[in-house]
Design a protein that fits this description.
248 residues; 12 helices; 48% helix
């Protein structure tokens, strides 16, 4: 156990921040930490947009489902899958990267690169006493978000991250037991997995009951079955292809 591990194990999403800006030097350090993340074959298939203008943050909050903490925070980052830079590089050197940019593997590489960079930034921010919350809601209206942030073809905003000085201290939300997610040598069969999931269902039901004063008592499995009953953002495939990505 060390301070890094303690910070990681103490993670919780913060949705209320103090009205206090983050120093520019800190912002630059956080971005530098994001850039230090592992990246597939040195490709660095991401860009980070720092949204500083309040009018833009207000509009993003609206597009993300009227989430107030998108507008009210110390700083707001948008993490983008970005092959536009690689297209420019190919033109500069007389190459052609179209087949890779349009491939399924290329799209997966980009998403993984974005995720790794963002989590580096999140851990760095929390190590400095800042709070963070990921914002997947910007994908509710990606065409509008893309236009608002002037993202060219081959650039897709995947999610945002609100960062700031915490003005709340929510409880630590339970995670699945390690037995449910860690498989040694081979994937566990259902006979071993189901008892663990049933126990977690009861644990999370009790967590929500205590957190809400009895107003809510559904467990994790019940919640996931309800949330995942219908697919979300079904326009996504068409939008991604319109950006010149994932066509093969």
């Amino acid at each position: 156990m060390n301070e890094t591990i303690k910070n990681i194990l103490s993670h919780r999403s913060i949705r209320r921040f103090k009205d206090e800006p983050i120093p520019q030097e800190t912002i630059e350090t956080l971005v530098q930490c994001a850039q230090s993340a592992s990246t597939s074959s040195y490709q660095q298939v991401y860009s980070i947009i720092g949204v500083e203008e309040q009018s833009l943050k207000d509009k993003l909050a609206e597009l993300a489902g009227n989430q107030s903490y998108v507008a009210q925070n110390g700083y707001f980052f948008v993490f983008c899958l970005d092959y536009h830079r690689h297209k420019l590089m190919a033109e500069m050197t007389g190459g052609n990267v179209d087949a890779t940019v349009q491939s399924k593997e290329g799209f997966m590489v980009g998403m993984i690169d974005v995720a790794l960079a963002s989590q580096n930034l999140a851990i760095a921010a929390e190590s400095l006493g800042l709070g963070i919350v990921y914002i997947g809601g910007i994908r509710n209206n990606l065409p509008e978000v893309s236009e608002l942030l002037r993202c060219p073809d081959h650039v897709v905003p995947l999610f945002g991250m609100a960062v700031g000085f915490p003005d709340a201290s929510p409880g630590l939300k339970p995670r699945l037991p390690q037995e449910a997610v860690f498989h040694k040598n081979q994937y566990k069969d259902d006979e071993k997995a189901l008892p663990v999931l049933k126990e977690f269902e009861m644990k999370t039901a009790e967590y929500y009951k205590e957190r809400t004063g009895g107003a809510r008592d559904e467990g994790w499995a019940t919640q996931m079955a309800r949330v995942m009953a219908q697919p979300k953002r079904t326009y996504m495939k068409e939008f991604i292809e319109s950006k010149g990505l994932d066509k093969q």
